[in-house]
Amino acid sequence: MLLKTARLNKQGLEHDRRFMLLKVREDGTFQNVQIIYFPECARLFQAIDGDDIVVTHRPAATEKDGPNSSGQSRIDAELRVPLRPNTEGLETVDIHLYGAETRAYRMGAEPYDQWFSACLGYEVLLVYIGDGRRRILAHSPRQEAEADKTSTAPITASSSSWISSISSYITGRPQPSDGERPGDNDNEKDDDWLTFNEAAPYLVASQASLRDVSSRLPPGETTDMLRFRPNIVVDGDEVTCWDEDYWGELLVSPSSCNGGGGGDDERSKQDKDDIGSRNGTCRLALTANCGRCLSINIDYETGRMAEGEAGMVLKKLMRDRRVDTGHKWSPILDDMRISCRVRKQMPS
């Protein structure tokens, strides 16, 4: 869904990644419903209407009603979910997502679990993160600053853009102690934490890089930015393909951080020292690259893996985009950024 305006905070766009689906396995355990394993979820659409999220299921044109639809047509069926549910009395469930754990609230069987189960054809639960928090898996600006104080190695524009191994994000962070709720450690003391984002609150990509990806496909075929699922897309005459490999910060207009619209002004890491003198006062700090997986081969129109050349985008990128030593076997498109830092305007 393309937004003209959005309110930004350290956890991402307002209301983003607060809900998640869990598949119920035969043994009663749960599996996170993620698009790489459940591509049919691409046919679920969301829109905000007042204080509700309106979810619509639109099966592909050739898809018939699933076995759990009870004879009721699922085409354009809607479900309304409150943006801010009352969690009092709701059952909780433990969430394990990329090594950062928390607890979430079950929204309830009727109508939520039943509706999604009917759409997808298997039993699922809808959960809400509420006051739950997850550790940041990408480096936070605070972690970077602490590393700078203790490291004797010089920090260069290229070297800091290669820090990306997910394993390094997880190790060295304290695990919850006995009797402590997952997520209740150092992140409870500040506002650097995640909801259901995978590793960082924001994912930034450029249209120039996407055009380069499309150029690898047969004439007349293009790939859609939706496959890469960024929160922020940057375009403009000064942005060339793969520029985002070297960006250190992204400036966002103050009105965007306060809920209004505004433009984006990207700056390379070499210009980072004087970036505070610009008009923008919200900064998204570059913390890692995003290693891609088979999810970029999904056809969002059918909710299945794409056929032909479109289903080989990952393989095509692996030829020359394995540029991050922390993601040895994964190509890079998108940068993960965290911490929308609002600062006072520096005098010119």
What is the 3D form? globular
Number of helices, counting only DSSP H or I runs of 4 residues or more: 7
Distance between the termini: 38 Å
Which regions have little confidence, pLDDT < 50, spanning 5+ residues? 65-76, 147-189, 258-280, 342-348
Radius of gyration: 21 Å
Which features would summarize this protein structure in a list?
single chain; 348 residues; alpha+beta; six-stranded mixed beta sheet; five-stranded antiparallel beta sheet; 7 helices; 18 strands; 27% strand; globular; disordered C terminus; MoCF_Sase_C; MOSC domain-containing protein
Short characterization:
Residues 264-276 have a biased composition (Basic and acidic residues). The protein has 348 residues and is α+β, with helices and mostly antiparallel strands.
